[in-house]
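Teaching assistant here, posting this on the class forum so everyone can see the example we discussed in section. The complex has two components, and the goal was to see what a joint structure prediction looks like when all of them are supplied at once.
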Amino acid sequence: MLKLEARANPSTLMSWLSPVFALLLTVLCGVILFVALGKNPLEGLAAFFWEPISNLQGWAEVGVKVTPLLLIAVGLAVCYRASVFNIGAEGQLVLGAIAGGWAALHMNDGGNTGGAAMIAVALVAGMLGGMFWAAITTVLRDRFNTNEILVSLMLVYVAQLLLSYLVHGILMDPDGANFPQSKLLDDSFLLPIIMQGTRLHFGIVLALLASGLGWVFLSRSFSGFKLQVGGMAPLAARYAGFSSRKSLWTSMMICGALAGLAGVCEVLGPVGQLTPTISPGYGFAAIIVAYVGRLHPIGVIFSSFIMALFYIGGELSQSRLGMPNAITGVFQGILLFSLLACDVLIHYRMRWGK
Amino acid sequence: MLAALGLLINEKSGVVNLGAEGMMLVAAIIGFATAVNTDSVFLGFAAGAFAGMVLAGFFALLTVWLGTNQYATGLALSLFGSGASAYIGINYVGNSLQNGKHGVPLLEDIPFIGTALFRQHPMAYLAMLLCAAIIWFLYRTRAGLVLRAVGESPSSAHSLGYKVRRIRLYALLFGGACCGLAGAYMSLVYTPLWSEGMTAGRGWIALALTTFATWRPARVMIGAYLFGGVTILTFYMQGLGVAIASQLLSMLPYLATIVVLVLISRNANWIKLNMPASLGKNFTPH
C-alpha cells in the first residue's frame, strides 16, 4: 500500500517551484496529446508558448487577456485565503459588464463626449454591479447559512441569462440587423490604448495596481491579517474576537468589485459593446490562476500570464493546426490537477509499505 | 436525479465531489459517441457510466490517496470535464446537425420525459428502483452502516478495522457511474444530440439536491421531481405564449435552487444533524 508521510519541513523553495513543476507536467501531457492526435508536438508547443510572445503584438494580446484574469484572481485569492469559496466570479464579471456597459451606453446616448470622468463613472458602476452580485451570495451565506459555492455558481447562470435577455431586448442596437448586441460605444468611452497599434488598454494598469493593493491588504493590513486567521483557524479567530462575518463581507466585496471591474474593462476595452458572450470563462479560469499563483496577489501575476498564453495558444493552434479551441479548457484542467498533485508531494513523501 | 443519488453515496462516505458537472459532460459525449457509432443506446449508457467511473477513480486517487483538497480537485475536474467534452465533441456537433435524423430514429420509440408522465424512458424507472435500493442499502445492510460510519467518523471506522480509503473509493466510483448514467441520459434521451456544455449546471443542481434532501435518498427523489417540474413548467409557459422572455424563464430552475437552499439552510442545527459529520475532510490512516 502507498503511504503518505508528512515532511517535517516542507521546503519553502519547493512550494514556490511547485507551480513550475505543474506547468512542466502540463506541457508533457500536451506533448502526449499532440502526438496522440497525430500533430507535430513541436509545432503545437510553439503555438502555445513561443508564438504569442515572439513579437510585440503578441505581448500586447497576452496583456489584454491577463487583465481580466489578474483582476479576478486577486479577488479570488483574498476570498480563498479567508476560506470563502466563491466560484461565481464569472457571474460577478457579467454583472459588472452589464452595469458598467449600461452606464457607458446611457451616457453615450445622452450625447456626452466621454473622456476620463465618464469612463471612471462606468468603471465604478461595473464594480458596484459585481459587488451587488457578490452581495447576494454573501447575504444568503451570512443570514441563512447557505453554501456559497452552490449559490454563487447558480448566480453565474442567472447572470448570463440576464445579459442575454438585455442584449436581446432593451439594450439591443436598433440598427444592428437584429443581432443580439448593443450599440458600439464611441471611442471616447473606451479605455485608452497604452501601446499604439495594439489592443493593450489601460485595464492592465488597473490590474497590476489591484495586484499591488491586494498584496498590501493581505500582508500589511490588520484586517487582511484577521481575514487570513479566520480562513486558516476559525476557532483561533473567534477566540481572538475577530469577526468572521466581517471577513466574509470584506473578502466577498473585494472579489465582487474586482470581478465587476474585469467585466467592465472587457466592455470598455477589447469588446467595445455588450454581447451575450462577454467572457470566454475568465471567471472560472481565474480560479485556476489563483491556485497556481499560490493565492498570492503577486504570484497570480505570473500564473495569469501563463493562463493568457493558454488562451492565445488555443486560438493559434486552432488556426494553425486545426485543433479545436476547447483544448484550452483541457490544458487548464490538467494544470490545476498537476498543481494539486505536486503540492502533495512537497508536503508529504511517499512510501510503499503496508 | 441519478446524479444526485450517486453524489449522496459519495457524501455519505464523507467525500464531496464538485466534479459532477465535468463527469456528466464527459459521460454525455462518450455515451453519445458510442451510441452514434454502434447504434446501441444500451452501449451508450454503459460507456457513459464507465467514463464517469474512470473520472471518479482519478478523483479518488487524488483526494483519497494523495489527500488533495476535495473542493479544489472537484473544481478542476469540472473545468477539465467541460473542456475535454467540448474537445471530444467537436466532430459530433457537426454530426448531429447534418445527420440529425440518424440519431433520432434510434430513440424514436422513447418519449421525451415529461411529455407523457406515465410512459417514461426505462432509465427513469431505473432511477426510482435505484433510489429504493440505496435506501435499503444505507439503512438496512451492514455495508451501508459501514459506509455511513466512514462518513461520520473515519477514524473510529478505521480503528475498527475498516478500510476507510477503499470504502470511499467504492463510493466515489458508484457516484461516478451514476453521474455518468445521468450525463448519458442527457445526450441520449433528453435532447438526443450533443452540444457543448449541454448539462447546463445540472451537475451543480444535483449537488444542491443532496443538501436540499438533507442527505436522505427519498427526499432526493422528491427534490429531483420538483426541479424537473420547474424546468418543464418553463417549457409549457413558453408553449402557452406567456409574455415573459425565454431567458427569464430559463433562470427559474437556478433561482429555485437558490431559494430552496436558503429555506433548507436557514436552520443550521437541522443541517448539522443530518450532514455526515466529516464531510469534505480528508482522512489519512496512521
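For the discussion questions: The mean pLDDT of chain B is 60. The CA atoms of residues 171 and 200 of chain B lie 25 Å apart. Think about how each of these relates to the inputs above.
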